[in-house]
Structures are given as C-alpha cells and as structure tokens.
Amino acid sequence: xxxxxEIELEKKDYEAAFTEVSFLFEVLASTVKxxxxxxxxxxxxxxxxMARKIPVNLKEPSLSRVFDVMKKHFENGFDFSxxxxxxxxxxxxxxxxxxDICRNQNVELGGEMCKIFHSYLGxxxxxxxxxxxxxTHTETGxxxxxDIKVR
Length: 151
What we know:
Layout: H1 11-36, H2 40-53, H3 63-73, E1 78-84, E2 88-96, H4 97-104, H5 112-129, E3 133-139, E4 144-150
Helix pairs in contact: 1-4, 2-5, 3-5
C-alpha cells in the first residue's frame, strides 16, 4: 500500500521558492564570471546539451523551424515572437523568467545573467540547426530584442 503526502502550497510559498532560486542563479552567474571570465562557452555548451535532450529530429532545420521548437520548449517561462531568415533572425522577448530573476535580485538587465542565457539560446539554436550561431541583445527592458546571426 502506498501512502501519499500532499502538500498544500500557497502563493507565498511559490514566491519564496522563486526568490531562493533567483538568489542561487545570481550567485551562479556571478561566480561563473569571477572564475572563468567569459561565460559564453559555458552557456553555449549547456544549450547544446539541452538541445540534444529535446526529442525532435528536424530533417530540414531552418531557423524558423528551430524557433518553433524553442517556443514550445520555453513556453512555460517565456513568451517571444521571432522573425527568421537565411542569415539569421530576431527574437522579441515579452515574458522572460530571466528578466524576472534580474529584477528580483536587483541586477542589471542585459548583464551577466542575460549573457549566459543568450549563450544558452545560441547553443540550443546551433545544435538544432547544425550551424554556428551568435545571439546578442539589442534592446533590454520590459521587452527585449535579440539578434541571432547564423553561419
């Protein structure tokens, strides 16, 4: 016989958990910068690793199709629109859990946490598309704009 323990969680419990995770992510991001300097290789490697775990095989991995896969993958924490072409594209990020973490920890939007995440997106995009990718932010705030270049 299996007994189940269910925990009743309230909004304040989720808010406390979010604050704790935000704190831990900020510490991780600042430690990465202190220890290795440039966080881009770490973010790219993590993104490539995550993309290999997504159960999808794109026979024709156009940037548009890659963006569709990423939208589905990130749908619980992000809302973004994309514009894709052969040489790259743009991502207009509306809802962003990384932005929420930055605000929760009073750290710079577009700073180290964002840079790690942009590298992560680049790694995922590279792995899914089979091309080299570079992601940079061109605008930060309530909506962020990312420029995605592919080779």
